[in-house]
Amino acid sequence: MDVELPELPFPLRPYGPDGNWSYEDGVLTGRAGPRQDRFVPPAGEALESASDAPRLLGAPEGDFQLIARVTVGFEAAFDAGVLYVHVGERAWAKLCLEYSPDVPTVCTVVTRGHSDDANSFTVDGDSIWLRITRTGRALAFHASHDGERWTFVRVFTLGDEKETGAALVGFMTQSPAGEGCAVTFDRIAFRPGGPADLRDGS
Q: Where does residue 32 fall: left (phi above 0), alpha (psi -120 to 50 degrees), or beta otherwise?
């Protein structure tokens, strides 16, 4: 069943396990169950259907920025709240606030058949602003302590401009090693187009 958020010009649809998604007064809440994750080990086997986590995704048009402040109820290593972008079953990426493994950290995963994994910087507390930008065939990840000044984290592509233009984007929660993890997303915003410069803090 589609979910309509007033901040977004496109509907969202749940994917993967039940995330108990709810929305009230500008706050989106989801919960991962025990040992739910979306990650394909670089030296491991291909993605299996059991490797999944709750996602709430939609299909924006054109270049855009998707922004949310993410707050994670950390209970176990690698619990995370995620902004997620999906191009294909083995072409997707995560921008996470993750307990990695014992301190909150902004980290990213880009999957092209198998996943990579890169930590960016640690966070003092359980909240951070995250942003996904699409500009042409490029996707960019940023994080911010205040939603105003943005730290560049990563720029990459998951395919050609047509493939990237058809991407699904949205929200995910995970608990790879734990018994579950609740995440809230607030201050959700959608902006057409990208920042003028990906690296100048705007």
A: beta
**Nearest Cα to Cα of residue 141 among 177, 162, 116, 160:** 116
Half-sphere exposure of 86 (CA within 13 A, CB side): 21
- Of 109, 112, 89, the residue nearest 98 (C-alpha): 109
63-90: burial string, b at 16+ Cβ within 10 Å, e else: ebbbbbbbbbbbebebbbbbbbbbbeee
pLDDT of 173-202, one tens digit each?
Answer: 999 999 999 999 999 999 999 998 999 999
Give the tokens for residue 28: 């989106």
pTM over 0.85? The answer is yes
Q: Cα separation of 200 and 198, whole Å?
A: 6
| Token couple for 107 | 């980290």
Residue ranges of domains in the chain, CATH in brackets: 13-192 (2.60.120.200)
